Amino acid sequence: MDPLSRLPLECLQIILQLFDDGNDLTSLAALLRTNRYLSSTVLPYLYRDPFRKDFHSTRSRQMGIAKEISSGKLLVRMLLSRLPSTSLPTALSLALAPSTTTKQNERKNGNSLSTTFSLFSPFTTKTSTKTIATTTGTTTGNNDSYYTALDYLAQIRHLDMRPSYAEVDCRQVHNFDTSLTHAQKEYTKSDEFNKLYNTHPFGPDFSNNWRSDSRSVHFYYHTILHHEVPWSLGFFILEQLQSLTIHRVYNIKHYIDVVDRLKNLEKVHFLLREIYEDEFNDSGGGDEDGVTEQLERTIQQDVVQFVQSHARLFPGRLKTVICFEGDRHWSDQAFVNGLQAEIYRIIPPLARPTHLGQDNWPRFQANPGATNVMNVQRINGRELPETWIKTMLDDRPLLERCRGLKYLEIATSQHDVFDWAVQERREREESLGRVITAGNIHNGQGSLLAPGTCHSGLVPLEQVDLTLLLDPSTNNITNHTTQYNSAIDSLVFAFGQTLRQLTVSTPYQAHTIDQLHLHIGRDWVHLLELTHLELKMAVNRLIIDPLVLTYCPNLTHLRMTDYTKEYSCQDIVPCQPADLSRLQTLRLSGWPALTFDPATLSSTPKLTSLELSIDRPTDQERQRVGFIPPLEVLKQSYGIRNDSSQEEDTGVSIMRPHWSWDWNLPLLTELVLTSEFALLFEFRMLLGCPALEALTLDIRSTGREVHTKSLLEADLIVPVLQTSTTPDDVSSSPPPSPLPSPTPHKTPEQIVLPKLKKLNLHGKWMMLGNDCLSQFLRILSPNLQHLQMEAWSFPTLKTFLLKIKENTLARRLMLPRAVRRPRIEISGMSAKQQSEVGMKYTNTYMHEYEDETWEEEQEEFFEPYGAKVVQCWSYTTDEYVFLGRDSGLWK
């Protein structure tokens, strides 16, 4: 006896429930075929919802034509085979009948396959036999009669099959010569079929798609099957169904007649999209989608009548009615929305929902005041129609009623959406005798309370994704700025004690972007729970209060961006350095990057990604090119002066902190610097970044001055301070006097990045001397895979390429299988550089006109990937180097 069969029924049911909760249908199907006891116990779990997703994933090839046959179609045929044949419509009975081919194959193979199998398919290949036996639980042995006797239909509680499952006839529908059996063809000539065809014909537009009446008749037969299969399968089990999908809207009247049998129905799904795809619809005089207003009114009346009848017979039982499918664009969205709203006013309101979103908002909106939202933890407002904001603000604010809310995603132009929460917070602090000031909370005697002291009773909001829209009621830029600041500061103040993730953004508005300046953080308090902060503002200047980062010591992800175009160094007021020991990602662009204090990097040992940039998106395209001030002004703002010449006083006061470029960032894998940050970058920083894998330096500028950065060998060798003692300082015998202190001295150390795989260098860089070139390539080695350069200047570009070749070949001798061919991209090369590497060559064209042929030589550039991108380098001799896929540089 199987060990599972010895278990008490209660224990076995717990095991089966675990399989069912985990959607482990494979294990349940295997147990179904074990023995009689297990199969009768497993059957309710496996067939409770037989059309759930991934019930089976069977595919087969039949008659040499690749055709996917879903397990749903096979399952439908098996279930229909359990019904009395006399109860089925004639068209459906003939479609399920075994074909002549099936009977001949059974006699030829000597197999006595079950009747169930013969009803599945007219084809009897080995693949299909195995597939069907697995799906239905039938086998070709002594247990045949038992498995055939299993009552699958009695276990079904959810009949939600897809429309494609109704294609029970597995023959090729459009192969009209073989799509119908002889019996089916005879049926299409009968009075019964002709009467049906004439009283309910195809719409004229649909009929015109067929070249002959016979083709139209054959397709009409298959269309009938689509109508009859769902109705016939569900008719005998209506009393036990908890959910039901009504496929054909014309069948709604059938279900209205038997609504008194649907006593357990809790969910119904009307596939209204078939209104717009129906073959019987007469498009004459209708709209362009062939749907007349009269048809829509008729369908609406039927759906509403069904829901009303069920609600009257079984009050409160029907809880979910769906009339739409996902994000599908309807031919008449207003019709669907109106129908959905009318239905939701009939059925009971949502019962203590835990979330509000696209799937349940229409039902909530029908009865907002009657819905208990105390348990709502998540609101996905971005998926909802714009009218939801009005509902949220009417009477008592919706957010205020959601006392368990933890996640909020919202796009709004209303600056007062969080005023209720601010008032709650202030009242709570005042009731406890506390005073709130910027950054801190004090008790009544003025003593500073511990930041993060929690209060019960407030909404515990943890994650917010807020999109601020322009208020359409005003064109005043000052009003927009005030509203933006108010909404953000109110949000942070009200939920500062529980907020973990905060994302705020504004959409790109070309006509206002250069005028908007935001000041954020002046009224913030300590945010000890905050780990994720993103401020993505499409404004000209995002001004951060100098103390904001000190309020957020537990940040792990920080991103702040704006659309700063040009700036004056005198306007920059740096932020205070902060201790961010948990920070892993830091991405600053625009004004937040310019005001960032680099001393903060001394406290970020866990940093893995660092980006400081001045990016200016344009209306045409987004490009990573930002503004760089004149070099003299830039250096003076940092207190950097040239020793070789006396600089003129530009009137720029030194207000900006010093960049030491000596931080220890052992986990940093990605470094992106653009504009002034790349121009002032010192390669000695890389000595503290041994894990670096990707480096991008971009010194291009939108300003008038073309900036150039020269690299010397000294820039790539870093003197490291070490301590040592001389031999005279050390003795084998005890010293008569104290040992002298170690002598500090500096030892030059080469910069090597063993993990660097990608290097992007943009702008006018100068590399001076072959020694510098050799040292630079050592930085790239040993694992560089992608090198991208633009407008670089070398002593000779050809020398640079040959150096790369030498390094690559040397590594291959040591690790021939571990080294990949690096991908190199160079853009913006001068004509001299192109000629130097042999991009210019002579091509011979053959011309032919009538009886004449002649040759023409033309000088061209080798551009296998367009004018600016080259992927692979190759060469033949020292005199002739060119770019191409094949040939010798990497061989």
What key attributes describe this structure?
alpha/beta; 27 helices; 32 strands; 891 residues; 4-stranded parallel beta sheet
Count the E strands: 32
Assign the structural class, choosing from mainly alpha, mainly beta, alpha/beta, alpha+beta, or little secondary structure.
alpha/beta
**Nearest-angstrom radius of gyration?**
38 Å
How would you characterize the largest beta sheet? 14 strands, parallel
Strand content: 15-25%
Share in helix? 25-40%
Spatial order of the strands forming the largest sheet:
7-8-9-12-13-15-17-18-19-20-21-25-27-28
Spans of 5+ residues with little confidence (pLDDT < 50)? 58-69, 100-147, 170-174, 282-290, 326-331, 439-454, 618-622, 725-735, 809-821, 839-843, 859-891
Biased composition (Pro residues): 733-745
InterPro entries: LRR_dom_sf (IPR032675)
Region (Disordered): 724-748
Organism: Linnemannia elongata AG-77
